[in-house]
Design goal:
Elements lengths: L3 E5 L3 H12 L3 E6 L2 H10 L5 E3 L5 H6 L7 E4 L4 H14 L4 E6 L16 E4 H14 L4 E6 L4 E7 L20 E8 L2 E3 L12 E7 L3 H8 L5
Parallel strand pairs: 1-2, 1-4, 2-3, 4-5, 5-6
Antiparallel strand pairs: 7-8, 8-11, 9-10, 9-11
């Protein structure tokens, strides 16, 4: 579904986000206060999608089309600016969805629904947790996080000595909040039907609750001696 997304902050994060959304055929408008940054943005984005001005100014937000926006993403390098933007978006303009970048981890406690923030993205915290998670899960790879990190779409290759190797999907003791979404075998995508027997080397894609990811990794990965 095509959405109109208003991005406040045209630095590296805002630029990459805008390019990604445009690739997905969404309508995007970027507000950037720095004239040089705005000029740079117009060289890499459609010129009419870039608006100069201060994103904490309601008149600038109005001119950028905030009343049409389904999503506002405040991704400047200043936490206070991002909070003001999301507060205005939610309480002054009733934007349905607000996302804010948290630049300084110690300020994360302020990014709450009371301040108009639906989703707070703390880059340092996310990176640290991802690294710790990848270390704890061995060969399991996290592809996507859902429901604010409660669930993950993961990929794991079935090890030769795995408990799951040679067993049909219906016979596996999967975690209670886990479901297989696909099995890739020799480049071919297979549906995880109950009768499908897992073979060593199969790549399993699964949706699993974060608390049960290690249990799934133990089922599919190398058995401990």
């Amino acid at each position: 579904m095509e959405r109109h997304v208003l991005i406040v902050g045209g630095g590296e994060v805002g630029t990459e986000l805008a390019l990604l959304l445009l690739l997905g055929k969404h309508q995007v408008t970027v507000i950037e206060v720095d004239p040089e940054q705005a000029a740079r943005l117009r060289r890499v984005l459609p010129a009419n999608s870039v608006k100069g001005g201060n994103g904490t100014d309601p008149t600038v937000l109005e001119a950028a089309g905030i009343r049409r926006a389904q999503v506002v993403a405040a991704v400047t390098g200043a936490d206070e600016t991002n909070l003001v933007v999301t507060s205005l978006a939610r309480f002054a303009f009733q934007v349905p969805r607000t996302i804010a970048r948290v630049r300084t981890p110690k300020n994360a406690w302020m990014f709450t629904s009371a301040m108009g923030v639906d989703v707070a993205l703390n880059q340092a915290d996310l990176l640290a947790h991802l690294i710790a998670e990848e270390m704890s899960l061995g060969d399991m790879m996290t592809l996507l996080k859902l429901r604010k990190g409660q669930y993950s779409l993961v990929e794991e290759r079935v090890a030769p000595t795995a408990a799951a190797a040679g067993k049909a999907v219906r016979d596996l003791e999967l975690p209670s909040e886990c479901v297989f979404t696909a099995v890739i075998r020799a480049g071919q995508l297979l549906l995880p039907r109950p009768e499908l027997v897992l073979q060593p080397g199969d790549e399993v894609l699964a949706l699993v609750h974060a608390a049960q990811a290690e249990q799934l990794a133990a089922l599919l990965g190398q058995a401990s001696e």
